[in-house]
Predict the 3D structure of the following.
Amino acid sequence: MQEISKGANVSLTALSEDAGAVVVSLSWSSVSGAGDADVSVLLLDANGKVRSEDDFYFYNNPAAADGSVQLLGKTPTGNGDEDRIGVDLTAVPEGVERIVVAASQYGGARFGDLDDLRMTVADRSGEPLVGFSIHDAGAETAFIFGELYRRGEEWKFRAVGQGYETGLAGLATDFGIAVNEEAEEPEQAGDPGEAGHGAEAVAMEKAPDAEPEPVAPAPAPVTAQVTAQVTAPAEPVAVPAQTRGRGPRTTTTKKKVTLPKVAKSSLAENDSWRPARLFPVPTLKSDKEREVRATSVLLSVMAQVPEFGRRLTAAFGAPAGRMQTFTEVSLPHGDTPRRPDGVIRVERAGKLWTALVETKTNGNPLKPEQVQEYMDIAARRGYEAVITLSNDVALEGAPMVDVKIDGRRKHKVSLWHLSWAEVAHQAQMLIRHEGVGNAAHAWLLQELLEYLRHDQSGCHGFQNMGAAWVPVRKGIEDETLASDDPRAVEVVESWERLIRQVCLRLGGELGQKALPVQRVRRGSDQRARRAAAAERLCLDGRLTAELRIDGTSSVIAVTADLRTGKVRTCVDVPAPEGSYPLTTVKRLVRLLAEAPADLHVETLVEAGNGPRGTLERLRPEPGDLLPKGGAALTGFRLSLIKGMGNTRGNTESGFIRSVDEAVARFHQGVVAHLGPVEARAGRQI
């Protein structure tokens, strides 16, 4: 990664061939761990002004309808936070010349109170490209960290580091937005509908010097509400309100609520007693009952927990606003009305965003003709989206359901897919790591998780490698599988779905996003890539993947060898530059003091193979890892090998469970102990 100083700029195209979409990260820390800031993004035209209020993105308006900008949320770090923003540069409108990335604080907090202010830009695969650290923050309450800007056909990054003591108001005014602070009534506890609960409000309108836009007649001016949350170590404290618009403003200081990972001790007499659950599952007898119950449970929690509903719908282009959800709605369609499983409606500034929901559980596939009907209904009624929800995981370039879009219709409907594994992941991220507004919301999410995890719910995520798994595996064992067998492509697609689900589960446990690594150029033909992977599978009998933990350089390589029936998890650890080989070896063994004894350690040298052995044998004699003949030590390869499940499903003896457990054990037992040592992808061996 290239480090640059304040005022410097660099071409993203020169740093990576895969910079068409980037992930921008803003991070900071504080000694007390209480420091916080709100990230915002502004799209500017050639005059350095926003074109309209829609060019301003913040946590109450986190995603652009065209997919160009999406706020990905806050991730807690050791003693601070990291906010991530996804920017698809290929989708940025022609009239946008600059993308400004900023952050602001409230309640008298200053950026000088925070440490380690930093901005990094990574490419689509997560590989860090450029970093910029701010060392001169003082009394500023808002900061422009950096900006992405066009130069001809390429995009460049400039390290700005400009602060404002006038906060969000001063920053926004510079870019054509007037910010008027108003009093805001505090939200009552448990009020599910409104975005921006319990906080100061900042009403934003177009500045006089910005170009006016036509506005339809309305009873009142349309404003975008920006809700600023003040994090403090104290319990929620409400400040008494004065007359609206006079005296001290009504503010509420809230602490995010998360649930402890360790459950309270049970008061049951024995293990046969089961706690009462809000969403009971054992009585479900049929797939239809499971679908109806799962849809109702999920949609009701989405409406009652604003943070959760927003997390699930932001990526689909839904605005932030008051959400209501409905089940088993009857909608006209020819002679026979259709009944989608659910409807989501979000109201903002008097406008409605509506999505139809089609749900499947227990591994049942989506029906193309049914989804097509809902797409047609949505188009006729002016709805914005159709959302499919099932155990399956969507793949890039491979739609879950093929539907026909009538190009003659002016109103376009988006088709989105959501996996039950993604639902569980988002719930876990909120209640274990990021927090929600109050304890009741955290409890509701916990009950939802318990429901999804129950054996009878049918909402367990991807759990079947498909009909092609058994014949392909048998063909590899017998060496009778032809290199052009189309069933091999089906297995490769199932393998990709499995890896994506493994990433969701691992990320939910860690509180950090885990993503598959694809070492291909942006825009590459995904079908051609999968066909090449299927051909390699037929030749060497191996399925391979890499996954990266967000915020680290660790890349875990996973190999499922269908010939030997083994799953290998692997990571490469580089040797520190300038250190003595024996010191390096001893340090590695100390770091792995709690790692499994069957961990394989191999010394990496510039040429040829280095010494190797199990950690159990090497602990008393670390010197056995030193290269022979004076070869230069470059690093180490750490590997764990596990037996592969025999069946295609997620049962105790299944392949899916064995891969999931192998990755979880490797991260917990090996990668987590490496600490500051950076690990990179282990080569497939």
User: Anything to note?
Assistant: The radius of gyration is 27 Å. The CA atoms of residues 368 and 402 lie 6 Å apart.
